[in-house]
Structures are given as structure tokens and as C-alpha cells.
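Practice problem 4.
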């Protein structure tokens, strides 16, 4: 791995999700750690714009879009935020804080 940084990429309901997917692919190709958060709206946009299959999962989607399966070990995918997002976000922030040493 080229660095000890972890990049957090959130996929929200905004159009143009392909840029997020390309960013995740580029970071993984550089062997960087990537934590991905998918919102419910983000999953809908991924499905509409890129043919994402939620049943298959995000790592399978990335493999189908050209990411080397060996690089997927650097990927963490957080569950979709549903009701009470503050609870999930709190767990996410605590986890990210654990991943990020003081710079």
C-alpha cells in the first residue's frame, strides 16, 4: 500500500454518480484504503444511472466495472443509511476516527 490514509467516499442521491465510482476505482488502483457509504438515495441513483444490482453488492459492481478483484481488500462498504441516520453516522464517525491517526 502506498500510504496509510483512508479515503471516505459517500455516494448520495446526487446525479453523476459515475464520478464517485471512478474516484473509488482510481483510489483502489493506487492501493489506497477506501471506506464507502451508500445512502438509500445513492443506491437508487447507482441503479438508475449505472445498472447497480444491490443484491449482488458493491464489490461485485466494482469488479464488473473494471476494478481488479485483488484490490477489493482495500475497500470497506458501510451499510445503507435508513431511518435514524444519526445512529449510523455516529458509528461511522467513531470508526473513521479509529482509522485516522492524528495527522
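Answer key:
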Amino acid at each position: 500500500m502506498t500510504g496509510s490514509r483512508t479515503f471516505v467516499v459517500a455516494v448520495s442521491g446526487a446525479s453523476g454518480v459515475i464520478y464517485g465510482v471512478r474516484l473509488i476505482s482510481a483510489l483502489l488502483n493506487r492501493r489506497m484504503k477506501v471506506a464507502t457509504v451508500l445512502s438509500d438515495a445513492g443506491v437508487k441513483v447507482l441503479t438508475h444511472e449505472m445498472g447497480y444490482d444491490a443484491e449482488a453488492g458493491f464489490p461485485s459492481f466494482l469488479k464488473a466495472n473494471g476494478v481488479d478483484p485483488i484490490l477489493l481488500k482495500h475497500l470497506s462498504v458501510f451499510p445503507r443509511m435508513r431511518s435514524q441516520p444519526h445512529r449510523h453516522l455516529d458509528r461511522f464517525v467513531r470508526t473513521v476516527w479509529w482509522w485516522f491517526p492524528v495527522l
